Amino acid sequence: MAVKICIYALPTLFILVSFLSHTFASKTLNPEPELATLSSPPLISFNTTILSPNRTFELGFFSVDGGSTYYLGIWYASIPIRTYVWVANRLAPVRASPPSALLTIAGRLAVADSSNSILWESENSTPAAAVQLLDTGNLVLLSVGGRGAIAWQSFDFPADTWLPEMAVTGSVAITSWRSPMDPSPGEFSLRLRPPKFGEFELVFNGSVSYWWTGNWTGTRFTGVPEMTVPYIYSFRFSNPFTPEAAFDYSQSTSAESGLQPLLSRFVVDSSGQLMQYTWSPQADSWNMFWSRPDDPCRVYGRCGGLGLCSSGRSLRPCTCPTGLRPVDPTGWSSGDFSSGCSRDALCTDEDSIFNEIGHIELDGAVDATFSDLSRGSCEESCRKNCSCFGITYNSESRICTNLYVSAYNLRNSTASATLFIRISPGKVLSKKSKWKVRILIIGIICALVANIAIAPPLVIIVHRRLRRLRRREEYGGEDVGLKVFTYKELSSATRGFSEKLGHGGFGAVFRGSLPDSTPVAVKRLERPGGGGDREFCAEVRTIGSVQHVNLVRLRGFCIEDPHRLLVYDYMPNGPLSAYLGRGSKRPRLSWPASFRVAVGTARGVAYLHEECHDCIIHCDIKPENILLDSDFTPRVSDFGLAKLVGRDLSRVLATTRGTRGYVAPEWISGVAITAKADVYSYGMTLMEIIGGRRNVEAPSPQAAAGDEVGEEGWFFPAWAARKIVEGDWGAVLEEEVEGYDGMEAERAARVAVWCIQDEEAARPTMGTVVKMLEGTVAVAAPPLPKMMQALIAGESFRHGSSSSAGEILVEDGAGAAGDCRR
Q1: For residue range 785-796, what is the model confidence (pLDDT) as tens digits?
Q2: pTM over 0.85
Q3: Is 676 annotated as contributing to ligand binding?
Q4: Which of 197, 308, 392, 763 is deepest in the core (most CB within 10 A)?
């Protein structure tokens, strides 16, 4: 029940402070550090705000539903996108009434409605006489007794955002919003993991841990390698592995990092992922360049009970399997999927059917496994138990698993078992069934108007034509000359998807053979339930229309719900990454082969940038995405979801990707992303080709002995760049390389350093890179990039560090792309 505010005559000290306080007459208030406000008049009303001294943050009331409910919160005042970082009354919004915030007679900050009923108040035991919004975004209450003593602060009661200088302790958890439009506490939290408090974890519903950082080593968390190299952040962990543990971080100043100060925040998103954002002034948007878990479908309970999660659908990843419906349709429409899905099947449905969902992994179900059963017997065993909601069945091993109660985290899998969910008969028709009904109707009509001799072929023709038209309208694959395969054809070509080549960014890749014996690689996209069509269409149309000797060729695709598959030329010699790294068992490339790979890769990327109809920014150049054919000719792959930038556009937002160790500095600094980001990634890859090793691995004995670097602190490009700039490029070459050409090696080494310059204007275009490597353009001695200088001078280069790296991870974040003219 709401509590009435009591307003009494205040002590003389309070009256004096009130008299000297700032008059809150304007709509937006800019307090001085010693600003004090008492219980009358209100500190803030629904149409007034308070700014921090540097005008970065603003305190006031906001509404997410057009004015029906109000929350007291803090947001960024200096950017055009309203971004909330703290909410006071998350569980008690002011409804249908003008809100106000004030200091009560007890010296607590309170949120009240128009009838002076308190809906929320701060939990300080020491009375406060002043309120101050700091430049850090921390709202503090200053006590009566001592000048500047903090009686309460918002940093001790965070919402979903972790700001610089905010300490997370064993008693503090950062909890997500319920949905993007509901600030109330959600199901997901970030906290120090009890009882040891030596690592962070993300938890569902306060109990189920689904991601953790690994233990603190004194310089970093074992499961967060991005913290190895200093660049933007400095981390502090006080009293780790004790109940008094406290972890906070700060941003490096421009003098320390060489970059302009930027806005940055960590957020426990309503999706359950921990995300890191920086503000891009050029794009007027937030860049999300780091998130955990990488796959949103690895978040426990993301889609609630029996909800199906599709990684490719970033905005609405959750769907209900066929035959199921959302428990809370209103919540689902607003982005709150926590209620999950429900079945129509009842215990009395003895004739309940089992709807095929696909190759699905799941968590949280109680199960019972039986051997050597037919699928029919497996289904019958489930029907006998009221709480059995479905089965998984492996037709090859005849292993049956009954699933009871409910399950979470339904997601696509490469497992051989298939999930079937028990539903009432006749409740729903799948998409495939609906198409079958339509075709059946067409067949009946044809049979009535034609004689029996021509009806069957006419039905077949109509069937095929409708299928072609549907695919052409929805996905536009045939207009770029791609073959449309059936799922049955590709299952046969891959022998039931039995030979797995690897797992890429969007699904598993299998080896196959077409009827004419042509070897192919088939990528089975992780798109259960028909989701992720935007990404699928982008990859099909982009790759299908691009042809170059140094780019992987897309032969065709399959789109049969719930299946999405891409068919590529098979590359028998695998990815370049298989030939890099220390170890005697790894295959090695000779210098001529390595140099040929370097030049060919540059030509392929240059074609994407400069010769396609639209400039294609790959965004993920790395050895894993450079495949080698039978002649060791390099083919750049996995650019189907790269950013397409029209040459007439100066700036555009897009879905971007990247990998730790290859991402250009502008991703962090907020500079607009252009094709020069690919040049940087290529330079990092060229370093690996020259050295025959990975960029982040233990040093060679010679390097370790000469530079006194510890294994934990080894970052190859920093060491190699220094050697190349000093003229000692020979020290960078792979130790066992055969037949190297000195002029080629020196050119390649210098080009690599030019490509990884901090300023993108200093980097050559990929077309110029090709000419430099071929020797038609001279390569001057490059300067040492500033970031590499910092790494060499910093502690992390030699002995590890407690700060985060410029080598960041980008996953499905929003990045900016600049003009990509030739």
Answers
A1: 887 876 665 544
A2: no
A3: no
A4: 308
